[in-house]
Specification:
The chain has 433 residues and is an alpha/beta fold. The chain is built from 13 helices and 21 strands. A hairpin with a 2-residue loop joins β10 and β11.
Length: 433
């Protein structure tokens, strides 16, 4: 007889949330984690004396957020930083035009108003879009409806391209027309000066987590599930599978028998993105005070267009930028030094010789991480918002898929991961938690 009622594959936030709920309900649960740490894509680095979140950073809106509630319960300090949703203004943003000079406050307001006008028109075009329409298709329709000149249109087009990349790590033509339907912020956004990984630690307290245990096969049948790992096999009545979409679709992770429809179809229409962080700490601050972000417009913004001021977290001058979509793919083979010099070249366009070499650098490599194969999932052309929930439909009363890609209301977030893990636990228990 198996010593476990449920096997949870993956000790990220989804897996830990599921295991926490099931364990608290009296079930015998084991969590199998391939890494030598918990947290998954919530990963805080402290190796250089600083606290740097290399994965998830934000709660994108604390209003009614279960993650905010959990963070408060675990005593996690939060700092307001409402700019992670790629808003055009919401907080002070320093915009620099194509010539590298900063826009006046009035010009920046006019630009933000243009983005809001496009977004107002965009909702209707998305709602009426064809099943195979891309986000490029619907944004071009919304831009054309404005009747602007070429220059004004191009600035807005750039913003929409960058928003697609920063929100989903995908080129605008690869993202489904409905790919940003969930792109809304309720309340202030916050980040964590002491590290987001404290959320994982709080959820994992007293759980049976087996680190360094790589799962390769999940065999399921009416009688239960058997999970094959590099440290032996584990059996249970049911399982919660929380590995990322990139791993689910990889040849190194197999279901036996394969996932049935409609789950398999939904998985096929989701894809893992290309999205990397570049965190630069500097000896001195060279950018303007009291701005949350720096944004560059024009052709030079093709890769490096937005920098976020992290100085308030620890009192040391620091900027965060992203290699997203095409930039992440093109620089994937570059070493850190080459990436940093490419970023600094753009900063020097804006700030000149004041830009010194950074004292500390972090460049993530989620695309090459064998346990993620990307940062998070996005909807490819032809997918629908329902695909997230369809992927999570229970399979034979045995398998339950969870994770950020399986939650329709707010995918690609820690909130989605936590809520999907709790939902899987509720389905196993047959009651609300």
């Amino acid at each position: 007889m198996s010593p476990f009622d449920t096997i949870v594959v993956g000790a990220g936030i989804a897996g830990l949330a599921a295991a926490r709920a099931l364990t608290d309900a009296g079930r015998k649960v084991v969590v199998l984690e391939a890494r030598d740490r918990i947290g998954g894509r919530v990963w805080t680095d402290r190796s250089d004396g600083f606290v740097t979140d290399l994965g998830a950073s934000w709660i994108h809106g604390v209003t009614d957020s279960p993650v905010a509630v959990a963070a408060e319960a675990f005593g996690m300090r939060m700092v307001e930083f409402t700019v992670g949703g790629y808003q055009p203004d919401s907080r002070p943003i320093a915009y620099y035009g194509p010539d590298g000079t900063r826009l006046t406050d009035a010009a920046a307001r006019r630009f933000a108003d243009d983005i809001r006008a496009v977004d107002a028109a965009l909702a209707g075009f998305v709602a009426g879009s064809a099943p195979d329409a891309s986000y490029r298709d619907v944004t071009e329709q919304a831009l054309a409806a404005q009747g602007w000149d070429a220059e004004r249109t191009e600035r807005a087009r750039e913003f929409l391209e960058h928003r697609s990349e920063e929100q989903y790590g995908a080129w605008i033509e690869d993202l489904a027309a409905h790919g940003l339907d969930d792109d809304s912020i309720a309340g202030d956004e916050v980040i964590f000066p002491d590290g987001y990984d404290r959320l994982a630690a709080g959820l994992a307290a007293d759980l049976d987590v087996r680190l360094g245990t790589v799962v390769s096969r999940v065999a399921w049948a009416e009688g239960g599930v058997t999970v094959t790992t590099d440290r032996g096999t584990f059996s249970a009545r049911d399982a919660v599978i929380t590995v990322p979409v990139g791993v689910l679709k990889s040849p190194g992770f197999a279901f036996d028998p394969p996932l049935p429809e409609p789950n398999a179809g939904a998985l096929g229409r989701l894809e893992m993105n290309a999205f990397e962080k570049v965190v630069l700490r500097f000896p001195a601050k060279f950018w303007d005070d009291d701005v949350y972000a720096i944004r560059q417009q024009g052709p030079e913004s093709r890769w490096w267009h937005s920098w976020y001021d992290l100085t308030a977290l620890h009192g040391t001058p620091a900027l965060l930028t992203f290699a997203a979509g095409p930039a992440a793919v093109a620089t994937r083979s570059w070493d850190d030094d080459r990436i940093v010099e490419s970023v600094l070249a753009q900063l020097r366009r804006l700030f000149g010789a004041r830009v010194e070499q950074p004292s500390h650098v972090h460049v993530t490599r989620w695309q090459d991480d064998p346990f993620t194969l990307g940062s998070y999932a996005y909807m490819t052309v032809g997918s629908t918002t329902d695909d997230h929930d369809v992927l999570a439909m229970p399979i034979g009363g045995i398998l339950h898929l969870a994770g950020e890609a399986t939650w329709t209301d707010d995918p690609a977030t820690v909130t989605a991961a936590m809520e999907s893990g709790r939902r899987a636990a509720e389905r196993i228990l047959g009651r609300s938690i």
